Amino acid sequence: MSQLYRRILEKIRGRKTSTVVLILLPILFFFVSLFVGRYQIPPSMVIMTLISKILPIAHSYNIPKPIEITIIQVRLPRAIAAALVGATLALSGTSFQALFRNPLVSSQILGVASGAGFGAALALLLSGDLAVVQISAFGFGIAAVVMSYAISRVHKETPVLTLVLAGMVVGALFSALTSLVKYVADPYERLPSIVFWLMGSLAGVSFKELSWSFIPMIASCILIVMIRWRLNVLSLGEEEAKALGVDIEKMRVLVISCCTLMTSAAVAIAGVIGWVGLVIPHVCRMLVGPDHKVLVPASISVGAAYILAVDTVARVVSTVEIPLGILTAIIGAPFFFYLLRRERLGWR
Amino acid sequence: MEMKVVDLHFSYPNGKEVIKGVSFEVKSGDIFCILGPNGCGKTTLLKCLCGILKPTKGSIFLDNVDANLMSKAEYAKNVAYLPQEHRSVFPYRTIDFVVMGRAPHLGMFSTPSDKDYRIAEEALKEVGAYHLKDRLYVELSGGEKQLVLIARALAQQPKILLLDEPTSQLDLKNQAIVLRILSGLAQRGLIVIMTTHFPTHAFLHSNKVGLMMAGRFLAVGGPEQVITEENLKKAYGVDVKILSVKSPIDEGFVKMCIPTEVILARRCLCRFERMDEDAGQEGS
User: Fold this and answer.
1) In whole angstroms, how far apart are CA B143 and each of A222, B41, B146?
2) How many domains does chain A have?
3) Is residue A348 part of a domain?
4) Mean pLDDT, residues A90-105 taken together
5) At A14, which CATH number?
6) ipTM, 2 decimals?
7) Which of B83, B92, B111 sits opposite A240 (nearest CB)?
8) Looking at the domain assignment, is residue A347 inside a domain?
9) What is the pLDDT of residue B284?
10) CB distance from A102 to chain B under 8 Å?
């Protein structure tokens, strides 16, 4: 009995601090992003508003309509979207780094962001309707990855190097097409909206967008979490994974599909947000080590917390919102440099 | 356990045939050494045997069951493979690395349980590397890495162990350790199939040798019959002397191979040294 107790204690102690921090971090930032904003609402009022939505008894408290709208229809969907986008971008970065055995790839290695960017730009040029833009971005993001995968498939196999090169080719192609769309777009009406969309922002996210995009995001997340230990085996390399009885082609299709689905959905609602899928996996590897059994949940948690924090800053810091993609790059690039300078980078 | 390989062929997609009809049979307790010059197809043969490459023709039978009828995971439960070297990207802890050998025993959606970690620890103990458990695999020395790789293969709980030149990058002591471990495993009933560049090792601890040349076995059988001066000359194209030396620790004899060209080269070297000495004396 005492032995069992000691073993349990050891287990908790080993990862106690990091586990607690990793669970609390996104929750903390979630509430911070609900509490702060240009329209000042005291935290107690925010809590009341939230409770009044869940429990009918709280109706007796009189909550002003503008506050309710700000919290429920503006800040809440935006915070949920930020958490989802951060979690999925970081998770797909982690998965791709394991799959491609390269710590320098990110979620955009197969051209998903370029494809989605082109889809959005095209839709903004032709229609401008938000729903059309999102669906077009989602569709073209997936199409870009399918293209990369299809052209790299030789002899019923997809060598990793060919896949990466194909991703670069497809990415370059869609970037060029995006430039073409920008070139022909009306510079006073359409062009600014295209440019802003490509910078990435969560402004204006509502439950309507979340209602469709959270399904591919959550489903893919769950699937990757379930197969997370297999990512360890995949990261040993193609041949060794095969010798360990892993159906590598099947696993690769599964991981790529999940990552593409969730990244496309994330890009569709938030635009192109760089650096998250590259930096967050490294940060997590420093925190919990390279074992994907722990690394995958950690990436979800840190990614969500990161975008929640950055989006809050983007909203609050100046009177005009700073595009999210610009902020993540401004924070991400120097931070990645700092990581590179540190001796223990979590890979070598 | 018995492994039977019948008329195995393999060609790369570009049409180049590398394995041109290999057949052999091994059973529990065998240590089967595959010798042969560089590029004769030893590594390719091992990769065909472990399922990394799919043979273009021919069959592999495990206990008379055709390997083609087994799932990949089921096959990997029987056959483990050790690559010549493992290049890791992420610095896994040794124990996490060894536990990956449990992959064929675990479902796609499961993570290793306490039992799997115990099996991995047992495997580390068996190769005498338990003390490395919490070290990072990438920071281990070459000899330690080889031991940990063997432990990972053992965690797979296979009946057949395939090793690609397990001793070629090790120092004298680690070579001895690895060969001793392999002998122990064979005594326990495993089949060990390994490629090597040292005919002397084949004499020392194998009971079956296949001499490969250009994708075929020149000869298969006991080490005494296969490793002969003519066969080695045929396979490697160099003159080799096989010496029988009285064993220093028991009554038997130990056989070893010495390429005569090396002796000749040594002689040239001596002559040069002598000339140097002469020149030195003249100077003083």
Assistant:
1) 40, 25, 5
2) 1
3) no
4) 91
5) 1.10.3470.10
6) 0.87
7) B83
8) no
9) 45
10) yes
**What number of H helices and E strands is found in chain B?**
10, 12
What's the gap in Å between the CA of A111 and the closest CA on chain B?
A: 23
Residue B80's DSSP bridge partners are: B161
Looking at CA atoms only, how far is residue B117 from chain A in angstroms? 13
DSSP classification of residue B206:
-
pLDDT (tens digit, 9 = 90+) per residue, B20-71? 999 999 999 999 999 999 999 999 999 999 999 999 999 999 999 999 999 9
Which of B74, B81, B108 is facing A243, going by the closest CB pair?
B81
Of B51, B88, B96, the CB nearest to A243: B51
Compute the residue count for chain A: 348
Domain that holds residue A59: 2-342
Distance of CA A303 to the CA centre of its chain: 7
Number of C-beta neighbours around residue B56 at 10 A: 15
| Minimum distance, in Å, between the CA of residue A21 and any CA atom of chain B | 23
- Could you tell me if residue A236 is inside a domain? yes
User: CA torsion sign, B185 to B189 to B195 to B201?
Assistant: positive
Query: Which candidate in A102, A227, A236 is best for mutational testing of the B interface (most B CBs within 10 A)?
Result: A236
**B contacts of A291 (beta carbons < 8 Å):** 92-93, 96
Whether the CB of B91 is below 8 Å from some CB of chain A: the reply is: yes
Hey, of B89, B93, B99, B145, which one would you mutate to test binding to chain A, going by the most A CBs within 10 A of its CB? B89
Sign of the Cα pseudo-torsion (B47, B52, B56, B58, in order): positive
Window A:62-101, CB contacts with B under 8 Å = 98, 101
Task: Please list, in sequence order, all residues whose beta carbon lies within 8 angstroms of the beta carbon of residue A294, skipping any fewer than 6 positions away.
Answer: A15, A288
A275 domain residue, yes or no: yes
Name the burial class of residue A71, with classes exposed (0-12), middle (13-18) and buried (19+) by CB atoms within 10 angstroms of its CB. buried
Q: Is B111 on the interface with A (CB under 8 A)?
A: yes
Task: Kindly state the helix (H) or strand (E) to which residue B243 belongs, with its residue range.
Answer: strand B240-246
Name the β-bridge partners of B25: B4
Beta strand residue intervals within chain A, DSSP E: none
Task: Show the tokens assigned to A102.
Answer: 């390269």
- Res B116: pLDDT: 96
Query: According to the model, what pLDDT value does residue B205 have?
Result: 87
CB of B52 within 8 Å of a chain A CB? The answer is yes
Suggest the residue from A157, A160, A240, A288 to mutate for an interface test with chain B (most B CBs closer than 10 A).
A240
Torsions phi, psi for A130 (to 5 deg): -60, -45
| Inter-chain touch B91–A226, beta carbons under 8 Å | no
DSSP for A185-223 reads S-TTTHHHHHHHHHH---TT--HHHHHHHHHHHHHHHHH
Tell me: the pLDDT tens digits for B151-180?
999 999 999 999 999 998 899 999 999 999
For residue A335, the model assigns a pLDDT of 86
For the record, the structure tokens of A214 come out as 């959270």
Say whether pLDDT at A55 is over 70: yes
Closest Cα in chain B to A100: B89
Percentage of residues in chain A having pLDDT higher than 90: 55
